[in-house]
Amino acid sequence: MENTFLKELAEKVFAENQPDLHHVTVVFPNRRAGLFFQRYLSNIIEKPIWAPEVVTLEEFILKRSPLQPADPLTLIFELYRAFNEYREVPEPFERFYFWGEMLVKDFEDLDRYLVDPEKLFISVKNQKELDEAFYFLDEEDRKTIQSFWSSFLPDASPSQYSFLKTWEILSPVYVNYTKGLVDKGFAYTGLIYRQVVADLEAGNIVDEQGRKLIFAGFNALTAAEEAVIKHYVKKHQAEIHWDFDQYYFEDRKQEAGMFFREYARDPVLGKSFPEEPPSMFSNEEKKISVTGVSLEVGQAKAVGEYLQQLIAAGNFDPEKTVVVLPKEHMLFPLLNSLPAEIKKLNVTMGYPLKETPLNGLLESILQIQATVRVEQDFFESFYYQPVMEVLSHPYVAQAFPELTDKLIQDIRKSNKVMIAREELQGHITLFDIIFERRKSNIDLCEYMVESLKTLYACMGEVVGLEREYLFHFYQIFERLKEILSLHNDSVDIHTFIKLFRQVTRTVKIPFRGEPLEGLQIMGVLETRNLDFENVILLSMNEGNLPAESKGGSFIPYNIRKAFGMPTFEQQDAIYAYLFYRLIQRADVIRMYCNTTPEFGLSGEVSRFVRQLQQETSFEITTNVLANRSVLSEAKTITIDKDLQVMRILEGYLEGGRYRFSPSALNTYLDCKLRFYFRYVAKIYAPDEVNEEMDAAMFGNILHRAMEVLYENLTKKRKPPIVNIGDFFTLRSSVEGAIRVAFKDYYHLPENRKLVLEGRNLVMFEVMKDFIAKVLDQDELYAPFEVIALEGGSRQGYKLDFPLASGQKVGLKGIIDRIDRKEGQVRVIDYKSGKDERVIGAVDAFFDRESKKRNKAAMQTFYYAMLYFNKHGDAEPVKPGIFNMRELFRPDFDESLIENGEALTDVRSYMENFKKQLGDLLEEIYDASDPFTQTEDQDKCKWCDYNGICRRS
Fold first, then answer.
1. What is the pLDDT of residues 165-197, one digit of tens each?
2. DSSP string across 465-479
3. CA–CA distances in Å: residue 279 to residues 126, 219, 257, 284, 584
4. Which of 223, 356, 394, 861 is deepest in the core (most CB within 10 A)?
5. What is the 3-state secondary structure (H, E, C) of 386-443?
6. 938 phi/psi in degrees, rounded to 5
7. Prediction pTM value
8. Spatial distance between the Cα atoms of 150 and 146, rounded to a whole number of angstroms
């Protein structure tokens, strides 16, 4: 590449205008093009002279208006004011905001394209009115509009009628809105453009005489921009220099040349086109390659490797190289992938504030305020999710590691869905500020500013970029406070959060640096008019380049098209031009695309790549970077019982710290390796807060509720007899017992009111029905004596089981209920699952190969053994299961069934049960018998450790 567009322009401007360069104004589409133009001009100039004025077109137009551009929040609030003046019932701001934002954008387009608002917003109720209103359109355009409105006529639904009523008032709303803005001295950019055009046509703008105007590098002009340029061409003999190429200009199929072909036909603009269009695209020898890489980070890494290769080969000239990022969030992955040898770089694109780590933290802090719950006017608690997000955020967790870890573990272990304010405050100043309820949004803004200041102080050494984050967010909250103060703080917390998100979505952090030195990293729009020898394009996938059409509109596509307003065709043409213009003078073009259509990413290569392959004679090399990852077969895991393992197992022997529960023994029978992970290696599944009830949670709360119910009744009775007459009291106490159980489960203090929501409320009702059925059965069984509840709140149930070696293994059990009637003892287990009551031989309880092994029955036998150990075997013991699935049957019986008969006494089974249990325990303590995986992989589906074993 010998010359660039801006270099050629600089040479021409210098040659034609020296020594009067200071009387020249050069207008570019963006500031970046002007900087490069000035550099090329300075290389030509050999002695000090006054430089020409270099401005952007926006600066050029705004300079000619007394109005100041307003920020998006001001525009939304002003539109809301204007809109409600024409509403019988004021629209709530939270409902208005999002489509109001869309309406502001439509007004912007309407004015930028100089559309007559009255004609655009005219009410359409019948075909005659439509024809009269749009008499100025040709037949094709009129049919286009009619085809849209026909769906609303003649019988409109209520929603269509409401839409038509809204459409009717848009014209007066527009007039009121724009007048209100102008009266206050500010406006949106489109309105300023429209007024400047009107003032130019009316002769109200007097420009400096003798200045030469040059408009350079433009492509897709709005109607207002086109009118301004035409005015200065006709009235001031302004020059226009187009940056285009014959390749896409003369080929009508090439969308990249669409706008140039229109301008070439214009009686004013057409005169500025050269007789012979420049031809660089096809004449240049180009090396083009397309590389497919998995995911976005992979592309950034691949670019880093490519640049490293150029540096190693001595072929890297940073000033002649550009990396173009169609997706802004690719910036940091790219920066982290650049070779260390690249000391200078210039980032022209701003980084979205919403992508910063601090934004996530601030959103979580705002959500804390949105989810605060106030009880009895003084007790405040916060929903666990935003609290956990704040505590685990790197900025907070790294500043206070011990405190945050302690609080997180406590929340998880205690399953705290709502966390009391007192538990979070009193530790550090930052938490005292964050975990305090704010009663107004203005107060909330001040609170967020105070949080930022305190966070800044807590973070210690803050790097420049993080300091920039803090400064921008500080500005945002100050601006929100100012706007809300002007409008009486009329939005709720949820709308405030949406406003905050909207603002952060539009704000970008500018990167400061030397724009003309080092490797250039740019967004697509920033590349206008710039030429580089070495072009690197990332994210060359459909939806990225060309970018997807975003944002809705009140103005349907057909009407936009009929009135000359922008549609997706124009957007595609703009991106096509930017792509072809970027590579038209380049020597080496490397494009990278994603090959993995996952995580919301497209795997389809951009149409621009396909067009180059199909429509040009360039040799384009394609390749895919991929590391073949072949998963090795899952290896069988075996854990030998070495000295260390046996030492841990000794902890379960008599006098040790631990005891085996029936669940532990059932785990061993299901899978020896799972037993090892859980009870030997002590690898626990991480605690998680569970706000909605699952089967385990249901069982825990149910057991506690039954314990509370009977304990409150019998705690002062000696003996603790339950009589038939007690069941009225018991039934009236069910809800209270369940609430106590819920509060115990969620670790709520006594003075807290329990609020049940969602599935928990449903489960509350299900639990009431289940307990009611249990009470029905108990009433039929009454009177009976309650011996123990929940494993012996009155008595403990433990056993040191002897082995042949003389050692004793510690066993324990939590029995839901033990009762007695007429010399018959029952061991009751409440079950919420699908447990069967039918049993076979006792040996089958310990048969790990059997898919029908009855774990629940084995557990009740185990409990009976513990009972006999504590109380002796003088009385018969009957095991029973209150199974939810069967409890609602009219013929319900809690008895275990053997050979079709109810099992009423387990004493005759105990000897065999103990023998089988002893054999099992001997096996556990057999040092020659390793811990191995189960052969039945169906048992692995819901295992906490299947990731270790690599079994699904």
1. 556 777 888 999 999 999 999 999 999 999 999
2. HHHHHHHHHHHHHHH
3. 53, 17, 13, 9, 9
4. 861
5. HHHHHHHCHHHHHHCHHHHHHHHHHHHHCCCCEEEHHHHCCCCHHHHHHCCCCCCHHH
6. -65, -30
7. 0.69
8. 6
